[in-house]
Amino acid sequence: MAAEPEEEYESVLCVKPAVLVYRVPPRASNRGYRAAEWQLDQPAWSGRLRITAKGSTAFIKLEDKNSGELFAQAPVEQFPGIAVESVTDSSRYFVIRIEDGNGRRAFIGVGFVDRGDAFDFNVALQDHFKWVRQQSELARQAQDLEQGPKLDLGFKEGQTIKLNIANMKKKEGATGSTRPRPAGPGGLSLLPPPPGGKSSSGERPASLPTPAQLPGTPITDSLLSWPQPTAAPAADVWGDFAKASGSASNQTQGNTGWVQF
Questions:
Q1: DSSP letter at 36?
Q2: What are the backbone angles phi and psi of residue 139, rounded to the nearest 5°?
């Protein structure tokens, strides 16, 4: 079953709501068209202008403002060309070649009230045919590549290649020599304990030696081992106090020769 040709779609390039149409007198020489020779104050028709494109051909359509009914159409296959010409005395007026589809053709003049509308009309046609030229160039380049010799990058029979993977082995060996960290509760890896600290296995660090006393260093409680006082018997708490008071009174009675003040 043969593949159906791809249907081309119609795109809108430019729309101008106000355009004037004039009758163009026959050109007597090749000096070009002049808008001053038209009756500019008496346009033959006024309406809307719309530029569409289908494939590489552009169409200038003159339509009614309200109903959109087609008044005339000018197919443009090349720009600049005979289908669209600028006048020699103004930038707001053009001469286009309209066709009715039956082979009959006529030249009419179109003009814009605003100079900016005339500029947009001209640029829309230029951009379209610039795109057409780019597509033609890309198609020509693709055809040249297909017709030219193809570059074969495949391996020939018996052909081999050699890869140097020495650096990859070194990296793998360095990665495998690292010791795994011990896993703690919950599967979390623990960092090694700091030097001199208490490890997670419960081992206590070795006790530090007692510093020696240097000459001239004051004696402190940290350097002396004081004997611990023994507790007195709890039987007679006031015994020593009574003995001391009794001996003091005897001494007072024995020394009667002393003058008491």
A1: G
A2: -65, -40
Say if residue 66 is exposed, middle or buried (CB neighbours under 10 Å; 0-12, 13-18, 19+).
exposed
> What confidence category does residue 144 fall into, taking pLDDT thresholds of 50, 70 and 90?
confident
Q: Which residue has the tokens 């001199």?
A: 196
- pLDDT, one tens digit per residue, over 189-226 is 666 667 665 554 555 555 555 555 555 555 555 545 55
Please state the length of the chain.
Answer: 261
Closest CA to 37 of 83, 115, 84, 90: 90
Distance CA 240, CA 235 (A): 12
Hey, what amino acid is at 43?
Answer: P
Tell me the two tokens of residue 89.
Answer: 């005395």
Tell me the torsion sign for CA atoms 157, 162, 163, 166: positive
Q: 23 forms bridges with which residues in the sheet?
A: 108
Q: Is the pTM here over 0.70, yes or no? A: no
CA dihedral 188, 191, 197, 203 (to 10 degrees): 50
